[in-house]
Amino acid sequence: MTVVLNQSFTGISIGAVLLLIALGLTLTFGQMGVINMAHGEFIMAGAYTTYVLQKSISSAGLSLLVALPLAFLVAGAMGALLEWLLIRRLYTRPLDTLLVTWGVSLMLQQLARDVFGAPNVQTAAPDLLTGNISAGGVTFANNRLFILGLALLCVLGLTLVLRFTPLGRRIRAVVQNRDLAEVSGIATGRVDRVTFFIGSGLAGVAGVALTLVGPIGPTMGTNYIVDAFLVVVVGGIGQLRGAVITAFALGVLQSVLEYSTTVSVAKVGVLVAIVAFLQWRPQGLYTLRTRSLA
Amino acid sequence: MSGLSISRRGLLYGASALGASAALTACGAKTGSGTSSDAGAKADTSGSTVKVGLLNSLSGTMAISEVTVHNSLLLAVKEINASGGVLGKKLKPISQDGASDWPTFAEKAEALIKDDKVVATFGCWTSASRKAVKPVFERYKSLLFYPVQYEGLEESPYIFYIGATTNQQIVPALDYLKKQGLTRLYLVGSDYVFPRTANKIIKAYAEAKGMKVVGEDYAPLGSTEFSTIVNKVKGAGADAVFNTLNGDSNVAFFKEYKSAGLTAKSLPVLSVSIAEEEVKSIGTQYLEGQLTAWNYYETTPGAANKKFVAAYQAAYGKDKPTSDPMEAAYISLYLWKEMVEKAGSFDVAKVKAASDGITFDAPEGTVTVDGASQHVYKTARIGKVGSDGLIEEVWNSGKPIKPDPYLKGYSWASALS
């Protein structure tokens, strides 16, 4: 029984990581339809922000807390810049966007290699986050609890922004019908940039969280980008609740398969499950219903 | 809306185009090396300098380990040049980055031999990279000196294996665990040739000697998600974990291990790819008290080691540790120098013929080359990670062990080769 509970927690914690890395993408890919291959590099930017902060602030706990908002701003600014420089010129050409952002992703990786050196680096986790809490034979690792909390907080924040603020209303309006939003007086260009800023910023926050579980390196983003796209596609494009459910479902599925078989077989199993699911429901878990004719 | 909407099919086409282009590059590299002729691959020894190739991953997941080996090779080149070079010729090091990618290793090895006309090449870390370059060195009849412990079961006529083979590292490590009464093992490794072969040997040993392997798991190289594996380890009732993970997967594994409440006391981990440099970058707090198996530690006593450590730290910084693969890389250049001088020539066949019985007063103690297998006699040492990040020896084999890459001298291993 404890094995099952331990493993459920593992699945949920894998799901929390998936959710964090996919959350930004639900905005930029899901809401705006931009295939941003450089999303993983914004995760990397967030992780390196933590690393740089830890070099200047010696307290691991304090630097982590400062890193969260700062990484959001750094990655967000990079995203907004990318949108302004390149992506907004390519909104009608999605496949070109894919190639351009892939190129940007390679450039950012090389930039990180030149600035921080090729070998991966590590940050020290605050003492509080290296331990664990035991309850009834189940071990909850503190760093995983932290990531879970952070992921849920980000989802809550994003939901509140989308649902209750004027900005959120404008974002939803643009997603549902761009032309109608534009003739209603919404500056769609500015809304796009802000959306991209928030989406990329969330990738930066995910990067901070990932420093708690693994090393920081120039190519770390590429490890996560495919998983992030999978979550968004399965969840249903443009659907926050779809992404949340999918992230946890894939996390649990991955950990259950990994427990009963091996890591490689589990990866294959998850992909097969996704392919089968998309055959059955090509539009994903949830779909956006609009009256748009396009 | 039409401009914004993106079809899944479009995304798939785009993604598969990217994948296909990557695959094409890889194939291109392979065909390129397959069809090229051997002409013009002869080492250039005409000038007052000769070129030596240094082939290490200076980027990617393996850079954490291989950059230190590269530094160590450069140090040996500098020292040899300062004392007059080899056969009166200065060495010019040519560095190539294998980038933790096996086809790249093969490509760069070929560039070193064909374009730079190096007299010998030093480097590689993972067995996958060694297996990738092995046919290149064999085709061009050029020498590679390989500085890392590996899984044995290989004797290429064009590779000198300066690191330990299994009977100088893994077998003594198993002997040690058995003596400590730790007989139920959980095997965790990266998913490539070294861990899989090493674990095959461990399973054969366990079966013959009354030990039990209670679990076995592999993670892809570079993987950072270990929560499930650690959970499985926890529930398996093991006495010890035998760790053959490579590169910075170790960072994620040991962070997870500690988070799960496992310690060196409750469930010790014996690692065969974690040396001083890795201890430092993983973090001493995660590794204190854990076991390692090598042939050399920074703390190994002796004048030769004092000199090596001092020279390395003078060149690269006071806080830089030295490790087993670094030491093996360092001595590989000296062993090659002795071979060349004994042969009186840079000619590969003559160097090979001169190799048997070459000895060198190495930091790990005196080492001797076994010409038949092109391996080295080495002393096995088990160490424990201390609170200062250095590794203290807790056991050694007493004398150098004769290399036996095919484990012919061990009856339990008869089914392996």
Automatic annotation (TrEMBL), chain A:
InterPro entries in UniProt: ABC_transp_permease, ABC_UrtB_bac, BCAA_transport_permease
Keywords recorded for this protein, A-Z: Amino-acid transport, Cell membrane, Membrane, Transmembrane, Transmembrane helix, Transport
Transmembrane keyword on record: yes
Family designation: Belongs to the binding-protein-dependent transport system permease family. LivHM subfamily.
Cell membrane among keywords: yes
Primary location recorded for the protein, binned into one broad class: membrane
Organism field: Streptomyces cylindrosporus
Subcellular location: Cell membrane
Gene that encodes the chain: urtB
Membrane-protein topology: Multi-pass membrane protein
One Pfam family matching this protein: BPD_transp_2
Name of the protein in question: Urea ABC transporter permease subunit UrtB
TM region positions: 12-35, 64-87, 145-162, 194-216, 228-252, 259-280
Automatic annotation (TrEMBL), chain B:
Xref: PROSITE patterns: TAT
Keyword match Transcription: no
Keyword Protein biosynthesis found: no
Superkingdom of origin organism: Bacteria
Pfam family name, one: Peripla_BP_5
Keywords associated with the record: Signal
Residues annotated as signal peptide: 1-22
Official protein name in the record: Urea ABC transporter substrate-binding protein
Species assigned in the record: Streptomyces cylindrosporus
